[in-house]
Amino acid sequence: KLFLIVIVDSLVHWADLEPVPQDDGPNPVVKIAYSEKFSDVYDYFRALLKKDERSDRAFALTAEAIELNAANYTVWHYRRVLLQALQKDLREEMRYITDIIEEQPKNYQVWHHRRMVVEWLNDPSEELEFIADILSQDAKNYHAWQHRQWVIQEYKLWDNELEFVEKLLEEDVRNNSVWNQRHFVISHTTGYSSPAILDREVQYCLNQIRKAPHNESAWNYLKGILQDRGMSSHPGLLEQVLELKETHCSPYLLAFLVDCYEDALENNNQKETLNRALEVCEYLAQEKDTIRKEYWLFLQRSLESRFGPSAASGEPLADGTEPPAGQQELS
Amino acid sequence: PVVPSGLLLCCRPAAVKPRAAMQHYRFLLILLPCVCLPRPTLLREQHYQYLKKGLRHLSDSYECLDASRPWLCYWILHSLELLEEPIPAAVASDVCQFLARCQSPTGGFAGGPGQHAHLAPTYAAVNALCIIGTEEAYNVIDREKLLDFLWSVKQPDGSFVMHVGGEVDVRSAYCAASVASLTNILTPKLFEDTPSWILRCQNWEGGLGGVPGLEAHGGYTFCGTAALVILGKEHMLDLKALLRWVVSRQMRFEGGFQGRCNKLVDGCYSFWQAGLLPLLHRAFFKEGESQLSRQRWMFEQQALQEYILLCCQNPAGGLLDKPGKSRDFYHTCYCLSGLSIAQHFGNVDLHHELILGKEENRLAPTHPVYNICPEKVAQALQHFHQLPVPEADQRHGASSWVGPATGFRVQMFNGG
């Protein structure tokens, strides 16, 4: 019965239109074995596109084409042209795009389309809740976070976002996307300049670290918020970290120590500080973070070169490296 | 010490502490049904058959890539060139003719015949044509129209949309810079403000997000960094922060790379992430950094090769994200590209190889900016730099060209 319906439908609604087969040429490459339905829909789509037909049947066909391949950005563009030309109900389009995104949340085109409709309606009122729902299914969906940041920034919806961030961090303190959102919200609202805010954030990090010592995100955030001001600018922090080293050690803690020492050296080059830094690099390279051995040894040589006694001795340092002379090889 | 690279890596390194090695192997033992770990083998013949077939025919499961067919050409051709499998002249010519059908009359390449131009398939098409590297291939590209297309997607803030009426993210800058530089249509004006826009994508983590404000991500970090290298502006990045971020993305147990902090390993990041190390090495070198190694990139090359060879190969051919996932041409391309990066240190003048397993596992080197073989990059640059840079008429979207010797402008379209 469905077969007959489809045939009759074609005859009644599409009879005047000559489908346009795809022009792959005589010796196609990367030729896809399209299903009959796929070929039919796209043959008619090509016919409509060729005519630049602006009709309801064209609009209906774009939905079919999208269902078969939601990544076809040419179809999406055409659908937008039709939405405007036919003065379609954008609220209904919002319902449509909501369903499509729920089905295919990792597609670029669907999110871009939603953004266009929101812009045309100038109505972001559904967005935060919708995105929250998508994130409840995949808390790290990159497109979802991108759309969320756009909505918040464009329509100045900052007020409740830090609360949202805190809730998600309670659910999963290792979700790096949420830590990024935290940074996004704070840097665009209060900023990190005020000592009160900075201190609050540092304490927040340290608390999360105590609860989950091997959470790289928390350590990266701690470094991220301090690096421009200087890691040593926060008094007592180095001591707190050295304390944590006894019970909550991790490669991330040790890396943070290196960064503290490096920052200290930049302000006040002391032999003892350098030695500690070199020691931690060695410990990381040989024991605690061996996958990054090449990097830690490079950093070690770099610190030695920048802060150590002059490297004018001309001795090779390690692994086939030498002081500056004759480096034309790596052009 | 001069040790044949095959021998050096054929037995489990005694230098690695037992506990770390055990944890490394524990991961592999869990994921692999067989326990034959030493001397991993690249399944060349199986990959070759998979690629050879795909270049002609794809099942209906590829309907979802019907708007990305130049990508399929590039992924397959690049995989074949890494495997040093020759492309028969007839096939090469067929690819040229197909890509010519994907070229838009208004410039740039589309995902398929009759579709609109888009920077991603444009990047893929130009790369595929450069891999083929024949006169026929180069001649497919309409350079004047390509320049018009790039102008048509350029934004006032320095960014590019991926296609007319499309989205902005840092991939577009890379695609634009790649094709413009290879085909010699690059002008300073075209990329005015692009470096400063890309720089805004570097965040508190040290890596780059897709647009300013977003989480640092391997794919976008590669695109932003490679674009800046092409534009000669890589020094504007916080290179130290970027280096720390990317080396931290190598997984201590799996050996492969994750795309973002606290996410899972994926074979494709073998290129997007590991490919950053050659770029950074060069950037540091240009800055006068004296402590760079002369033999190794700053990531664990052996561990990455192990991950790819032991965990990312489909026995029937093709490569994949991680065990349990299905093969596809995207992962085949980027796993092999990452394997090549991990095997080859240096450049033409200084070259140090580190081949895990048999010498037969060796792949051709790949260029870390364009991800096609370095000879093909050089050949394309040589060809296109003999041609004059088209002069784009931005107002009308048409272009003219300046004659080589005479200096007289030959006006092809109206526009002053």
UniProtKB/TrEMBL annotation, chain A:
An example Gene Ontology CC term for this record: protein farnesyltransferase complex
Which catalytic reaction applies to this protein? L-cysteinyl-[protein] + (2E,6E)-farnesyl diphosphate = S-(2E,6E)-farnesyl-L-cysteinyl-[protein] + diphosphate; geranylgeranyl diphosphate + L-cysteinyl-[protein] = S-geranylgeranyl-L-cysteinyl-[protein] + diphosphate
**Which range is the signal sequence, renumbered to this chain?**
1-17
Which domain of life does the protein's organism represent?
Eukaryota
Q: Which GO terms describe its molecular function?
A: CAAX-protein geranylgeranyltransferase activity; protein farnesyltransferase activity
Please list the cofactors this protein needs. Mg(2+)
E.C. numbers: 2.5.1.58, 2.5.1.59
Query: By its UniProt entry, which InterPro entries does this protein fall under?
Result: Prenyl_trans_a
Query: Where does the record place the region Disordered?
Result: 308-331
* SUPFAM superfamilies the record matches: Protein prenylyltransferase
Look up keyword Amino-acid biosynthesis and say if it applies: no
Subunit-level organization:
Heterodimer of FNTA and FNTB (farnesyltransferase). Heterodimer of FNTA and PGGT1B (geranylgeranyltransferase).
Please name the PANTHER family in this protein's record: PROTEIN FARNESYLTRANSFERASE ALPHA SUBUNIT/RAB GERANYLGERANYL TRANSFERASE ALPHA SUBUNIT, PROTEIN FARNESYLTRANSFERASE_GERANYLGERANYLTRANSFERASE TYPE-1 SUBUNIT ALPHA
Family of the protein in this entry: Belongs to the protein prenyltransferase subunit alpha family.
Its biological function? Essential subunit of both the farnesyltransferase and the geranylgeranyltransferase complex. Contributes to the transfer of a farnesyl or geranylgeranyl moiety from farnesyl or geranylgeranyl diphosphate to a cysteine at the fourth position from the C-terminus of several proteins having the C-terminal sequence Cys-aliphatic-aliphatic-X. May positively regulate neuromuscular junction development downstream of MUSK via its function in RAC1 prenylation and activation.
Q: What is this protein called?
A: Protein farnesyltransferase/geranylgeranyltransferase type-1 subunit alpha
UniProtKB/TrEMBL annotation, chain B:
How the cofactor is bound: the record states: Binds 1 zinc ion per subunit.
Catalyses which reaction(s): L-cysteinyl-[protein] + (2E,6E)-farnesyl diphosphate = S-(2E,6E)-farnesyl-L-cysteinyl-[protein] + diphosphate
Segment forming the signal sequence: none
Q: In the UniProt record, does the keyword Iron-sulfur occur? A: no
What cofactors are annotated for this protein?
A: Zn(2+)
> Which CDD domains does the record cross-reference, listed alphabetically?
FTase
Q: What residues does the Prenyltransferase alpha-alpha toroid domain cover?
A: 42-372
Gene3D superfamilies according to UniProt: 1.50.10.20
Gene Ontology molecular function: protein farnesyltransferase activity; zinc ion binding
Keyword field: Lipid metabolism, Metal-binding, Phosphoprotein, Prenyltransferase, Repeat, Transferase, Zinc
What does the entry give for GO biological process? lipid metabolic process; prenylation
The record's EC number reads 2.5.1.58
What are the record's GO terms for cellular component? Answer: protein farnesyltransferase complex
Q: What does this protein do?
A: Catalyzes the transfer of a farnesyl moiety from farnesyl diphosphate to a cysteine at the fourth position from the C-terminus of several proteins. The beta subunit is responsible for peptide-binding.
Q: How does it assemble?
A: Heterodimer of an alpha and a beta subunit.
Give the family per the record.
Belongs to the protein prenyltransferase subunit beta family.
Report the protein name in the record. Protein farnesyltransferase subunit beta
